[in-house]
Amino acid sequence: MSVTITIPAPLRQFAGGQSQIAVEAKTAGEALDLLTSTHTALRRHLFNDQNVLRNFVNVYLNDEDIRHASGPDTPVKDGDNIMIVPSIAGGAVIESEVGQTLPELSHEEILRYSRHLIMPEVGMQGQRKLKAASVLMIGTGGLGAPVGMYLAAAGVGRIGIVDFDVVEESNLQRQIIHGTKDLGRRKIESARDRLRDINPHIEIETHESRLTSHNAMQLFKNYDIIVDGTDNFPTRYLVNDACVLSGKPNVYGSIFRFEGQASVFWAAKGACYRCLYPEPPPPGLVPSCAEGGVLGVLPGIVGAIQANETIKVILGAEGLLINRLLLFDAWPMKFREFKLRKDPKCPVCGENPTITKLIDYEEFCGVAPHQQPKPETKLDEISAVELNARRLRGDKIQIVDVREPHEFEIARIPGTKLIPLGHVVTRMNEIDPEVETIVHCKGGVRSAKAIEALKRAGFQGRLINLKGGITAWSEDVDPRVAKY
Amino acid sequence: MITIPEKQLTEIREHGVRDYPYECCGLLLGRFNPGGKVVTETYPISNAREESAKRNRFLIAPEELMKGERYARDHDLEVVGFYHSHPDSPAVPSQYDLEHAWPTYSYIIVSTRADQATDLFSWEQEPDRSRFNQEEIQCQ
Hints:
Number of helices of chain B: 4
Largest interface: A-B, 33 and 40 residues
Number of helices of chain A: 17
Oligomer: heterodimer
CATH class of the largest domain in chain A: Alpha Beta
CATH architecture of chain B: 3-Layer(aba) Sandwich
CATH architecture of the largest domain in chain A: 3-Layer(aba) Sandwich
Mean pLDDT of chain A: 90
CATH topology of chain B: Cytidine Deaminase, domain 2
Helix content of chain A: 25-40%
Shape of chain A: elongated
Number of strands of chain B: 9
Protein backbone atom coordinates (compact mmCIF):
# COMPACT_ATOMS: atom_id res chain seq x y z
CA MET A 1 0.00 0.00 0.00
CA SER A 2 1.37 3.41 -0.87
CA VAL A 3 0.96 5.92 1.94
CA THR A 4 2.12 9.49 2.25
CA ILE A 5 3.82 10.68 5.41
CA THR A 6 3.70 14.40 6.14
CA ILE A 7 6.90 15.55 7.82
CA PRO A 8 6.45 18.38 10.34
CA ALA A 9 8.39 21.53 9.49
CA PRO A 10 11.07 21.31 12.22
CA LEU A 11 11.99 17.75 11.22
CA ARG A 12 12.32 18.34 7.49
CA GLN A 13 16.03 19.04 7.86
CA PHE A 14 16.40 15.39 8.93
CA ALA A 15 14.39 14.18 5.90
CA GLY A 16 16.34 15.80 3.10
CA GLY A 17 14.17 18.91 3.31
CA GLN A 18 11.07 17.08 2.05
CA SER A 19 7.63 17.83 3.46
CA GLN A 20 5.98 14.64 2.21
CA ILE A 21 7.46 11.21 1.68
CA ALA A 22 5.66 8.22 0.14
CA VAL A 23 6.38 4.67 1.34
CA GLU A 24 4.99 1.18 0.65
CA ALA A 25 3.74 -0.40 3.88
CA LYS A 26 0.99 -2.56 5.38
CA THR A 27 0.80 -0.89 8.80
CA ALA A 28 1.44 2.55 10.27
CA GLY A 29 4.35 1.15 12.27
CA GLU A 30 5.94 -0.34 9.15
CA ALA A 31 5.56 2.98 7.34
CA LEU A 32 7.43 4.79 10.13
CA ASP A 33 10.12 2.11 10.23
CA LEU A 34 10.69 2.45 6.48
CA LEU A 35 10.76 6.24 6.73
CA THR A 36 13.33 6.22 9.51
CA SER A 37 15.49 3.54 7.93
CA THR A 38 15.89 5.78 4.89
CA HIS A 39 16.24 8.94 6.97
CA THR A 40 18.06 7.65 10.01
CA ALA A 41 18.60 11.07 11.63
CA LEU A 42 14.82 11.35 11.97
CA ARG A 43 14.48 8.27 14.11
CA ARG A 44 15.77 9.63 17.42
CA HIS A 45 13.24 12.45 17.30
CA LEU A 46 10.35 10.04 16.96
CA PHE A 47 11.47 7.00 18.97
CA ASN A 48 13.18 6.70 22.35
CA ASP A 49 16.13 4.51 23.31
CA GLN A 50 13.80 1.58 23.87
CA ASN A 51 12.54 1.91 20.29
CA VAL A 52 9.12 2.99 21.46
CA LEU A 53 7.38 6.02 19.96
CA ARG A 54 8.21 8.99 22.22
CA ASN A 55 5.23 9.76 24.40
CA PHE A 56 4.82 13.30 23.07
CA VAL A 57 4.88 12.15 19.47
CA ASN A 58 1.43 11.43 18.07
CA VAL A 59 0.81 9.63 14.82
CA TYR A 60 -2.43 10.33 12.98
CA LEU A 61 -3.69 8.10 10.19
CA ASN A 62 -6.20 10.20 8.24
CA ASP A 63 -7.05 12.30 11.30
CA GLU A 64 -7.28 9.38 13.72
CA ASP A 65 -4.69 8.89 16.45
CA ILE A 66 -3.27 5.38 15.93
CA ARG A 67 -3.16 5.00 19.73
CA HIS A 68 -6.95 4.83 19.55
CA ALA A 69 -6.77 2.20 16.80
CA SER A 70 -4.25 -0.66 16.95
CA GLY A 71 -1.15 1.46 17.55
CA PRO A 72 1.76 0.64 15.23
CA ASP A 73 -0.19 -2.38 13.97
CA THR A 74 -2.98 -0.20 12.57
CA PRO A 75 -3.38 -1.31 8.92
CA VAL A 76 -3.04 1.28 6.16
CA LYS A 77 -4.74 1.52 2.75
CA ASP A 78 -3.56 2.88 -0.56
CA GLY A 79 -3.63 6.68 -0.57
CA ASP A 80 -3.74 7.03 3.23
CA ASN A 81 -2.03 9.98 4.84
CA ILE A 82 0.08 9.76 7.98
CA MET A 83 0.73 12.91 10.05
CA ILE A 84 3.24 13.25 12.85
CA VAL A 85 2.12 15.77 15.48
CA PRO A 86 3.85 16.61 18.77
CA SER A 87 2.15 17.41 22.06
CA ILE A 88 3.82 20.33 23.74
CA ALA A 89 5.12 19.77 27.24
CA GLY A 90 4.95 22.39 29.91
CA GLY A 91 7.42 23.32 32.58
CA ALA A 92 5.03 21.71 35.05
CA VAL A 93 7.35 22.42 37.94
CA ILE A 94 4.66 21.19 40.35
CA GLU A 95 5.29 17.58 39.50
CA SER A 96 8.03 16.15 41.62
CA GLU A 97 10.08 14.44 38.94
CA VAL A 98 10.29 17.42 36.67
CA GLY A 99 13.68 18.99 36.38
CA GLN A 100 14.98 16.63 38.98
CA THR A 101 18.24 15.00 38.13
CA LEU A 102 18.06 11.30 38.85
CA PRO A 103 20.87 9.74 40.88
CA GLU A 104 23.43 7.58 39.08
CA LEU A 105 23.81 3.86 39.78
CA SER A 106 27.14 2.43 40.94
CA HIS A 107 28.60 -0.69 39.30
CA GLU A 108 27.51 -2.71 42.31
CA GLU A 109 23.99 -1.41 42.00
CA ILE A 110 23.88 -2.15 38.27
CA LEU A 111 24.87 -5.73 39.02
CA ARG A 112 22.34 -6.01 41.85
CA TYR A 113 19.41 -4.67 39.80
CA SER A 114 20.33 -6.35 36.51
CA ARG A 115 17.05 -8.32 36.32
CA HIS A 116 15.22 -5.00 36.45
CA LEU A 117 17.57 -3.19 34.11
CA ILE A 118 17.16 -5.62 31.24
CA MET A 119 13.42 -5.00 31.10
CA PRO A 120 12.58 -1.87 29.08
CA GLU A 121 9.65 -1.15 31.43
CA VAL A 122 12.17 -0.48 34.19
CA GLY A 123 15.57 0.01 32.54
CA MET A 124 18.25 2.39 33.80
CA GLN A 125 15.84 5.29 33.90
CA GLY A 126 13.29 3.37 35.98
CA GLN A 127 15.89 2.02 38.37
CA ARG A 128 17.20 5.53 38.91
CA LYS A 129 13.65 6.67 39.60
CA LEU A 130 13.40 3.93 42.24
CA LYS A 131 16.64 5.15 43.76
CA ALA A 132 15.35 8.72 43.82
CA ALA A 133 12.04 7.69 45.41
CA SER A 134 10.99 7.76 49.05
CA VAL A 135 8.26 5.65 50.61
CA LEU A 136 6.77 5.81 54.12
CA MET A 137 5.41 2.54 55.51
CA ILE A 138 2.83 2.77 58.27
CA GLY A 139 3.38 -0.34 60.37
CA THR A 140 5.89 -3.17 60.15
CA GLY A 141 3.41 -5.95 60.80
CA GLY A 142 1.96 -8.54 58.47
CA LEU A 143 1.57 -6.16 55.52
CA GLY A 144 4.57 -3.98 56.25
CA ALA A 145 6.88 -7.01 56.29
CA PRO A 146 6.65 -7.95 52.59
CA VAL A 147 6.17 -4.31 51.55
CA GLY A 148 9.41 -3.26 53.25
CA MET A 149 11.40 -6.27 52.14
CA TYR A 150 10.39 -6.04 48.47
CA LEU A 151 10.78 -2.27 48.29
CA ALA A 152 14.22 -2.50 49.88
CA ALA A 153 15.21 -5.30 47.51
CA ALA A 154 13.90 -3.32 44.53
CA GLY A 155 16.19 -0.43 45.43
CA VAL A 156 13.73 2.24 46.62
CA GLY A 157 16.24 4.84 47.77
CA ARG A 158 14.69 5.95 51.05
CA ILE A 159 12.25 3.95 53.16
CA GLY A 160 10.66 5.36 56.30
CA ILE A 161 9.06 3.05 58.84
CA VAL A 162 6.58 4.04 61.54
CA ASP A 163 5.82 1.66 64.40
CA PHE A 164 5.76 1.76 68.19
CA ASP A 165 5.33 -1.93 69.00
CA VAL A 166 7.69 -4.65 70.12
CA VAL A 167 8.06 -8.04 68.48
CA GLU A 168 5.92 -10.69 70.17
CA GLU A 169 5.76 -14.42 69.70
CA SER A 170 2.29 -14.26 68.09
CA ASN A 171 3.63 -11.90 65.38
CA LEU A 172 6.04 -14.40 63.91
CA GLN A 173 3.41 -16.54 62.17
CA ARG A 174 3.12 -13.82 59.50
CA GLN A 175 5.44 -10.86 60.15
CA ILE A 176 8.41 -12.35 58.32
CA ILE A 177 10.49 -9.19 58.58
CA HIS A 178 11.08 -10.14 62.25
CA GLY A 179 12.67 -13.35 63.53
CA THR A 180 12.75 -15.37 66.70
CA LYS A 181 15.98 -13.64 67.73
CA ASP A 182 14.07 -10.32 67.68
CA LEU A 183 11.48 -11.25 70.32
CA GLY A 184 11.04 -8.33 72.70
CA ARG A 185 12.91 -5.92 70.43
CA ARG A 186 11.38 -2.76 69.08
CA LYS A 187 9.84 -3.53 65.70
CA ILE A 188 11.41 -0.53 63.95
CA GLU A 189 14.88 -1.72 64.99
CA SER A 190 14.28 -5.29 63.98
CA ALA A 191 12.79 -4.17 60.64
CA ARG A 192 15.62 -1.71 60.02
CA ASP A 193 18.24 -4.43 60.51
CA ARG A 194 16.45 -6.83 58.19
CA LEU A 195 16.06 -4.21 55.44
CA ARG A 196 19.70 -3.16 55.76
CA ASP A 197 20.72 -6.76 55.38
CA ILE A 198 18.61 -7.07 52.22
CA ASN A 199 20.00 -3.90 50.68
CA PRO A 200 22.83 -1.80 52.12
CA HIS A 201 22.55 0.73 49.25
CA ILE A 202 19.37 2.34 50.53
CA GLU A 203 18.50 4.65 53.42
CA ILE A 204 16.19 3.48 56.19
CA GLU A 205 14.57 6.05 58.46
CA THR A 206 12.86 4.89 61.64
CA HIS A 207 10.07 6.77 63.39
CA GLU A 208 9.22 5.22 66.73
CA SER A 209 5.81 6.64 67.39
CA ARG A 210 2.16 6.01 66.96
CA LEU A 211 0.85 7.82 63.87
CA THR A 212 -1.41 10.61 65.13
CA SER A 213 -3.26 13.66 63.83
CA HIS A 214 -0.45 15.72 65.32
CA ASN A 215 2.50 14.12 63.57
CA ALA A 216 1.03 12.70 60.32
CA MET A 217 1.32 15.77 58.09
CA GLN A 218 4.85 16.45 59.25
CA LEU A 219 5.88 12.84 58.63
CA PHE A 220 4.17 12.49 55.23
CA LYS A 221 5.75 15.71 53.97
CA ASN A 222 9.12 14.07 53.49
CA TYR A 223 7.97 11.10 51.40
CA ASP A 224 6.60 10.59 47.89
CA ILE A 225 4.30 7.66 48.60
CA ILE A 226 2.57 6.33 51.73
CA VAL A 227 1.89 2.60 52.18
CA ASP A 228 -0.89 1.78 54.63
CA GLY A 229 -0.18 -1.39 56.57
CA THR A 230 -2.35 -0.57 59.57
CA ASP A 231 -4.74 -2.91 61.31
CA ASN A 232 -7.35 -0.50 62.67
CA PHE A 233 -9.94 1.93 61.38
CA PRO A 234 -8.86 5.15 63.13
CA THR A 235 -5.35 4.93 61.65
CA ARG A 236 -6.70 3.91 58.25
CA TYR A 237 -8.90 7.04 58.06
CA LEU A 238 -6.02 9.12 59.39
CA VAL A 239 -3.67 7.81 56.69
CA ASN A 240 -6.29 8.45 54.02
CA ASP A 241 -7.08 12.00 55.07
CA ALA A 242 -3.45 12.97 55.56
CA CYS A 243 -2.66 11.57 52.08
CA VAL A 244 -5.51 13.54 50.50
CA LEU A 245 -4.53 16.74 52.31
CA SER A 246 -0.88 16.38 51.34
CA GLY A 247 -1.61 15.15 47.80
CA LYS A 248 0.23 11.84 48.22
CA PRO A 249 -0.78 8.45 46.85
CA ASN A 250 -1.96 5.99 49.51
CA VAL A 251 -1.18 2.38 48.65
CA TYR A 252 -3.79 0.54 50.67
CA GLY A 253 -4.05 -3.05 51.87
CA SER A 254 -6.07 -4.77 54.54
CA ILE A 255 -6.50 -8.34 55.70
CA PHE A 256 -8.86 -10.42 57.80
CA ARG A 257 -8.88 -14.19 58.27
CA PHE A 258 -8.61 -15.42 54.65
CA GLU A 259 -9.62 -12.26 52.84
CA GLY A 260 -7.65 -9.26 51.70
CA GLN A 261 -8.20 -5.98 49.88
CA ALA A 262 -5.85 -3.72 47.99
CA SER A 263 -6.17 -0.46 46.10
CA VAL A 264 -4.33 2.76 45.31
CA PHE A 265 -6.14 5.77 46.74
CA TRP A 266 -4.84 8.88 45.04
CA ALA A 267 -7.25 11.78 45.23
CA ALA A 268 -5.61 13.65 42.34
CA LYS A 269 -6.33 10.71 40.06
CA GLY A 270 -9.31 8.87 41.53
CA ALA A 271 -11.25 7.75 44.55
CA CYS A 272 -9.95 7.92 48.12
CA TYR A 273 -10.75 5.53 50.99
CA ARG A 274 -13.63 7.76 52.12
CA CYS A 275 -15.20 7.68 48.65
CA LEU A 276 -15.41 3.93 49.21
CA TYR A 277 -16.21 3.91 52.93
CA PRO A 278 -17.54 7.33 54.04
CA GLU A 279 -18.16 6.08 57.59
CA PRO A 280 -16.33 3.53 59.69
CA PRO A 281 -18.23 0.41 60.76
CA PRO A 282 -19.73 0.54 64.27
CA PRO A 283 -17.04 -0.26 66.82
CA GLY A 284 -16.73 -3.95 67.48
CA LEU A 285 -18.61 -5.03 64.34
CA VAL A 286 -15.48 -5.89 62.43
CA PRO A 287 -13.17 -7.91 64.65
CA SER A 288 -9.43 -7.27 64.56
CA CYS A 289 -6.96 -9.93 63.45
CA ALA A 290 -6.21 -10.58 67.11
CA GLU A 291 -9.86 -11.50 67.61
CA GLY A 292 -10.72 -13.08 64.27
CA GLY A 293 -7.41 -14.58 63.27
CA VAL A 294 -5.56 -14.32 59.97
CA LEU A 295 -3.92 -16.86 57.68
CA GLY A 296 -0.22 -16.10 57.96
CA VAL A 297 0.45 -16.10 54.22
CA LEU A 298 -2.44 -13.71 53.48
CA PRO A 299 -0.60 -10.48 54.42
CA GLY A 300 2.31 -11.83 52.37
CA ILE A 301 0.13 -11.88 49.26
CA VAL A 302 -1.65 -8.57 49.91
CA GLY A 303 1.56 -6.82 51.01
CA ALA A 304 3.34 -8.03 47.87
CA ILE A 305 0.51 -6.49 45.81
CA GLN A 306 1.04 -3.21 47.68
CA ALA A 307 4.78 -3.35 47.00
CA ASN A 308 4.03 -4.04 43.33
CA GLU A 309 1.72 -1.03 43.04
CA THR A 310 4.18 1.20 44.90
CA ILE A 311 6.91 0.32 42.42
CA LYS A 312 4.53 0.98 39.53
CA VAL A 313 3.61 4.41 40.92
CA ILE A 314 7.33 5.25 41.10
CA LEU A 315 7.98 4.01 37.56
CA GLY A 316 4.98 5.92 36.23
CA ALA A 317 3.46 2.68 34.97
CA GLU A 318 -0.06 2.30 33.66
CA GLY A 319 -2.58 -0.18 35.00
CA LEU A 320 -2.43 0.99 38.62
CA LEU A 321 -5.10 -0.05 41.11
CA ILE A 322 -6.60 3.45 40.91
CA ASN A 323 -10.41 3.44 41.04
CA ARG A 324 -10.17 -0.34 41.45
CA LEU A 325 -10.65 -2.35 44.62
CA LEU A 326 -9.02 -5.75 44.42
CA LEU A 327 -10.53 -8.43 46.65
CA PHE A 328 -8.71 -11.64 47.36
CA ASP A 329 -9.97 -14.73 49.13
CA ALA A 330 -7.22 -17.21 49.93
CA TRP A 331 -9.54 -20.10 50.80
CA PRO A 332 -11.26 -20.64 47.43
CA MET A 333 -8.21 -18.86 45.89
CA LYS A 334 -10.15 -16.20 44.04
CA PHE A 335 -9.45 -12.63 42.99
CA ARG A 336 -12.30 -10.25 42.26
CA GLU A 337 -12.32 -6.59 41.35
CA PHE A 338 -14.72 -3.70 41.94
CA LYS A 339 -14.72 -0.44 40.04
CA LEU A 340 -14.56 2.58 42.31
CA ARG A 341 -15.68 6.05 41.49
CA LYS A 342 -14.57 9.32 43.01
CA ASP A 343 -17.44 10.70 45.07
CA PRO A 344 -18.01 14.40 44.28
CA LYS A 345 -19.59 14.68 47.75
CA CYS A 346 -16.65 13.02 49.51
CA PRO A 347 -16.03 15.00 52.74
CA VAL A 348 -12.28 15.07 52.20
CA CYS A 349 -11.52 14.80 48.46
CA GLY A 350 -14.87 15.97 46.99
CA GLU A 351 -15.78 19.27 45.42
CA ASN A 352 -16.73 20.97 48.70
CA PRO A 353 -14.69 19.22 51.34
CA THR A 354 -15.77 19.61 54.97
CA ILE A 355 -12.60 18.00 56.32
CA THR A 356 -9.78 20.41 55.64
CA LYS A 357 -7.47 19.40 58.45
CA LEU A 358 -6.91 16.22 60.42
CA ILE A 359 -9.54 15.36 63.04
CA ASP A 360 -9.76 13.10 66.11
CA TYR A 361 -9.93 9.67 64.46
CA GLU A 362 -10.49 7.67 67.65
CA GLU A 363 -13.60 9.71 68.26
CA PHE A 364 -14.66 9.54 64.59
CA CYS A 365 -14.50 5.75 64.71
CA GLY A 366 -16.30 5.67 68.04
CA VAL A 367 -13.50 3.96 69.89
CA ALA A 368 -12.43 6.83 72.10
CA PRO A 369 -12.13 5.66 75.68
CA HIS A 370 -14.49 8.36 76.97
CA GLN A 371 -17.19 7.25 74.52
CA GLN A 372 -17.25 3.70 75.69
CA PRO A 373 -18.91 2.12 77.61
CA LYS A 374 -22.22 3.96 77.58
CA PRO A 375 -23.60 4.32 81.13
CA GLU A 376 -26.92 2.53 80.49
CA THR A 377 -25.20 -0.51 79.04
CA LYS A 378 -22.35 -0.64 81.51
CA LEU A 379 -21.31 -4.20 82.02
CA ASP A 380 -20.48 -5.89 85.27
CA GLU A 381 -16.86 -6.83 85.06
CA ILE A 382 -14.45 -8.94 87.03
CA SER A 383 -10.70 -9.23 86.77
CA ALA A 384 -8.94 -12.55 86.37
CA VAL A 385 -7.40 -12.23 89.83
CA GLU A 386 -10.76 -11.54 91.51
CA LEU A 387 -12.36 -14.43 89.63
CA ASN A 388 -9.63 -16.75 90.82
CA ALA A 389 -10.09 -15.54 94.41
CA ARG A 390 -13.84 -16.14 94.23
CA ARG A 391 -13.27 -19.66 92.90
CA LEU A 392 -10.75 -20.40 95.67
CA ARG A 393 -13.26 -19.12 98.25
CA GLY A 394 -15.73 -21.62 96.84
CA ASP A 395 -18.29 -19.06 95.63
CA LYS A 396 -21.09 -20.57 93.61
CA ILE A 397 -20.42 -19.33 90.09
CA GLN A 398 -20.46 -20.74 86.58
CA ILE A 399 -18.09 -19.75 83.77
CA VAL A 400 -19.21 -19.68 80.14
CA ASP A 401 -16.58 -19.57 77.42
CA VAL A 402 -17.97 -18.01 74.21
CA ARG A 403 -14.96 -18.69 72.01
CA GLU A 404 -14.87 -21.13 69.11
CA PRO A 405 -14.15 -24.85 69.65
CA HIS A 406 -10.74 -24.63 67.93
CA GLU A 407 -9.74 -21.90 70.36
CA PHE A 408 -10.97 -24.01 73.24
CA GLU A 409 -8.57 -26.68 72.02
CA ILE A 410 -5.62 -24.29 72.22
CA ALA A 411 -6.22 -23.17 75.77
CA ARG A 412 -9.03 -23.17 78.34
CA ILE A 413 -9.79 -22.10 81.85
CA PRO A 414 -10.56 -25.30 83.81
CA GLY A 415 -14.18 -25.95 84.70
CA THR A 416 -15.80 -23.81 82.05
CA LYS A 417 -18.67 -24.46 79.69
CA LEU A 418 -18.13 -23.79 75.98
CA ILE A 419 -20.97 -22.05 74.11
CA PRO A 420 -19.62 -20.19 71.05
CA LEU A 421 -20.89 -16.63 70.64
CA GLY A 422 -23.00 -17.54 67.62
CA HIS A 423 -25.00 -20.10 69.66
CA VAL A 424 -25.23 -18.31 72.95
CA VAL A 425 -28.83 -17.18 72.52
CA THR A 426 -30.20 -20.45 71.13
CA ARG A 427 -28.46 -22.39 73.89
CA MET A 428 -29.45 -19.92 76.62
CA ASN A 429 -31.34 -22.63 78.52
CA GLU A 430 -28.02 -24.35 79.24
CA ILE A 431 -27.06 -21.44 81.50
CA ASP A 432 -28.56 -21.55 84.99
CA PRO A 433 -30.06 -18.11 85.75
CA GLU A 434 -30.02 -18.85 89.50
CA VAL A 435 -26.24 -18.85 89.58
CA GLU A 436 -23.93 -15.92 88.83
CA THR A 437 -22.40 -16.33 85.37
CA ILE A 438 -18.93 -15.18 84.35
CA VAL A 439 -18.61 -14.92 80.56
CA HIS A 440 -15.21 -14.93 78.88
CA CYS A 441 -13.56 -15.04 75.47
CA LYS A 442 -10.00 -14.38 74.31
CA GLY A 443 -9.75 -10.67 75.13
CA GLY A 444 -13.15 -9.57 76.47
CA VAL A 445 -14.87 -8.17 73.36
CA ARG A 446 -16.90 -11.19 72.25
CA SER A 447 -17.93 -11.98 75.80
CA ALA A 448 -19.29 -8.43 76.17
CA LYS A 449 -21.30 -8.96 73.00
CA ALA A 450 -22.56 -12.30 74.31
CA ILE A 451 -23.78 -10.59 77.49
CA GLU A 452 -25.61 -7.92 75.50
CA ALA A 453 -27.19 -10.57 73.27
CA LEU A 454 -28.30 -12.65 76.27
CA LYS A 455 -29.82 -9.60 77.99
CA ARG A 456 -31.66 -8.63 74.84
CA ALA A 457 -32.96 -12.20 74.57
CA GLY A 458 -34.42 -11.87 78.06
CA PHE A 459 -31.91 -13.83 80.13
CA GLN A 460 -32.71 -13.06 83.78
CA GLY A 461 -29.57 -14.18 85.61
CA ARG A 462 -26.59 -12.02 86.58
CA LEU A 463 -23.90 -11.85 83.86
CA ILE A 464 -20.36 -10.69 84.53
CA ASN A 465 -17.67 -10.10 81.89
CA LEU A 466 -14.12 -11.37 82.46
CA LYS A 467 -11.90 -8.37 81.77
CA GLY A 468 -9.07 -9.23 79.34
CA GLY A 469 -10.47 -12.73 78.74
CA ILE A 470 -8.37 -15.85 78.89
CA THR A 471 -5.31 -13.77 77.99
CA ALA A 472 -5.56 -11.96 81.31
CA TRP A 473 -6.14 -15.27 83.07
CA SER A 474 -2.90 -16.60 81.60
CA GLU A 475 -0.97 -13.45 82.48
CA ASP A 476 -2.29 -12.85 85.96
CA VAL A 477 -3.44 -16.19 87.33
CA ASP A 478 -2.15 -19.27 85.59
CA PRO A 479 0.80 -19.03 83.15
CA ARG A 480 0.33 -22.73 82.28
CA VAL A 481 -2.67 -21.66 80.19
CA ALA A 482 -1.20 -20.93 76.76
CA LYS A 483 -1.50 -17.45 75.26
CA TYR A 484 -2.31 -17.26 71.57
CA MET B 1 17.92 33.38 16.18
CA ILE B 2 14.29 34.34 16.50
CA THR B 3 12.88 37.69 15.53
CA ILE B 4 9.76 38.80 17.31
CA PRO B 5 7.96 42.16 17.51
CA GLU B 6 7.69 43.94 20.86
CA LYS B 7 3.89 43.70 20.64
CA GLN B 8 3.99 39.87 20.56
CA LEU B 9 6.51 39.72 23.42
CA THR B 10 4.16 41.88 25.49
CA GLU B 11 1.25 39.58 24.62
CA ILE B 12 3.20 36.57 25.89
CA ARG B 13 4.10 38.33 29.16
CA GLU B 14 0.52 39.49 29.69
CA HIS B 15 -0.85 36.03 28.98
CA GLY B 16 1.54 34.60 31.58
CA VAL B 17 0.48 37.06 34.29
CA ARG B 18 -3.21 36.59 33.44
CA ASP B 19 -3.01 32.81 33.91
CA TYR B 20 -0.84 32.93 37.05
CA PRO B 21 -0.56 30.74 39.18
CA TYR B 22 -1.22 28.34 36.30
CA GLU B 23 0.95 27.95 33.27
CA CYS B 24 -0.09 29.63 30.09
CA CYS B 25 0.80 28.42 26.65
CA GLY B 26 0.48 29.24 23.01
CA LEU B 27 1.90 28.92 19.53
CA LEU B 28 4.37 31.18 17.78
CA LEU B 29 3.29 31.73 14.17
CA GLY B 30 5.52 33.10 11.45
CA ARG B 31 8.05 31.79 8.98
CA PHE B 32 11.21 29.73 8.90
CA ASN B 33 13.49 32.11 6.97
CA PRO B 34 17.05 31.21 5.98
CA GLY B 35 18.41 33.73 8.48
CA GLY B 36 16.25 32.47 11.37
CA LYS B 37 12.66 32.36 12.51
CA VAL B 38 10.41 35.36 12.26
CA VAL B 39 7.31 35.54 14.46
CA THR B 40 4.43 37.68 13.28
CA GLU B 41 1.62 36.46 15.49
CA THR B 42 0.99 34.65 18.75
CA TYR B 43 -1.79 32.10 19.02
CA PRO B 44 -2.82 31.65 22.68
CA ILE B 45 -4.17 28.23 23.52
CA SER B 46 -7.37 28.41 25.53
CA ASN B 47 -6.77 27.88 29.17
CA ALA B 48 -10.43 27.27 29.94
CA ARG B 49 -9.60 23.74 30.92
CA GLU B 50 -10.42 21.54 33.86
CA GLU B 51 -8.40 22.05 36.99
CA SER B 52 -6.76 18.66 36.60
CA ALA B 53 -5.88 19.29 32.97
CA LYS B 54 -4.06 22.46 33.97
CA ARG B 55 -1.71 20.34 35.95
CA ASN B 56 -1.30 18.00 33.04
CA ARG B 57 2.20 17.60 31.73
CA PHE B 58 1.20 18.36 28.17
CA LEU B 59 0.10 21.93 27.77
CA ILE B 60 -0.88 21.64 24.14
CA ALA B 61 -2.67 18.54 22.93
CA PRO B 62 -2.06 17.40 19.35
CA GLU B 63 -5.64 18.28 18.39
CA GLU B 64 -5.08 21.86 19.51
CA LEU B 65 -1.81 22.05 17.64
CA MET B 66 -3.45 20.73 14.47
CA LYS B 67 -6.13 23.40 14.83
CA GLY B 68 -3.43 26.03 15.20
CA GLU B 69 -1.59 24.67 12.19
CA ARG B 70 -4.75 24.85 10.11
CA TYR B 71 -5.21 28.48 11.18
CA ALA B 72 -1.57 29.19 10.29
CA ARG B 73 -1.92 27.56 6.87
CA ASP B 74 -5.03 29.61 6.14
CA HIS B 75 -3.04 32.75 6.89
CA ASP B 76 0.00 31.59 4.95
CA LEU B 77 2.05 31.14 8.13
CA GLU B 78 3.80 28.26 9.88
CA VAL B 79 4.11 27.16 13.50
CA VAL B 80 7.70 28.08 14.30
CA GLY B 81 7.62 27.41 18.04
CA PHE B 82 5.75 27.56 21.32
CA TYR B 83 5.64 29.65 24.43
CA HIS B 84 4.71 28.78 28.00
CA SER B 85 5.12 30.26 31.45
CA HIS B 86 6.90 29.01 34.57
CA PRO B 87 4.98 30.47 37.51
CA ASP B 88 7.39 31.34 40.36
CA SER B 89 10.27 29.50 38.74
CA PRO B 90 13.10 30.33 36.39
CA ALA B 91 12.59 30.68 32.65
CA VAL B 92 14.78 27.65 32.05
CA PRO B 93 13.70 24.37 30.47
CA SER B 94 13.70 21.23 32.61
CA GLN B 95 14.99 17.78 31.77
CA TYR B 96 11.37 16.91 31.13
CA ASP B 97 11.07 19.74 28.62
CA LEU B 98 14.19 18.43 26.87
CA GLU B 99 12.81 14.95 26.46
CA HIS B 100 9.61 16.31 24.98
CA ALA B 101 10.90 18.69 22.34
CA TRP B 102 12.11 18.75 18.76
CA PRO B 103 14.98 20.76 17.31
CA THR B 104 14.39 23.81 15.10
CA TYR B 105 11.27 24.94 16.96
CA SER B 106 11.69 27.87 19.37
CA TYR B 107 10.55 27.28 22.94
CA ILE B 108 9.97 30.60 24.69
CA ILE B 109 9.64 30.39 28.47
CA VAL B 110 8.51 33.34 30.57
CA SER B 111 8.91 33.39 34.32
CA THR B 112 5.82 34.81 36.03
CA ARG B 113 4.78 36.10 39.43
CA ALA B 114 1.37 37.21 40.62
CA ASP B 115 1.77 40.76 39.36
CA GLN B 116 4.46 40.67 36.69
CA ALA B 117 6.45 38.69 34.19
CA THR B 118 10.17 38.66 34.86
CA ASP B 119 12.66 36.80 32.66
CA LEU B 120 11.77 35.70 29.15
CA PHE B 121 14.12 33.45 27.23
CA SER B 122 13.93 31.42 24.04
CA TRP B 123 15.40 27.95 23.78
CA GLU B 124 16.27 25.66 20.91
CA GLN B 125 17.10 21.99 21.15
CA GLU B 126 20.50 20.75 19.95
CA PRO B 127 19.92 18.51 16.87
CA ASP B 128 21.31 15.48 18.78
CA ARG B 129 18.69 16.10 21.55
CA SER B 130 21.42 16.41 24.19
CA ARG B 131 20.51 19.87 25.50
CA PHE B 132 18.75 23.16 25.00
CA ASN B 133 20.70 26.17 23.77
CA GLN B 134 19.56 29.64 24.59
CA GLU B 135 18.48 31.37 21.42
CA GLU B 136 19.02 35.01 20.67
CA ILE B 137 15.79 37.00 20.58
CA GLN B 138 15.78 39.93 18.23
CA CYS B 139 13.08 42.36 19.12
CA GLN B 140 11.60 44.41 16.30
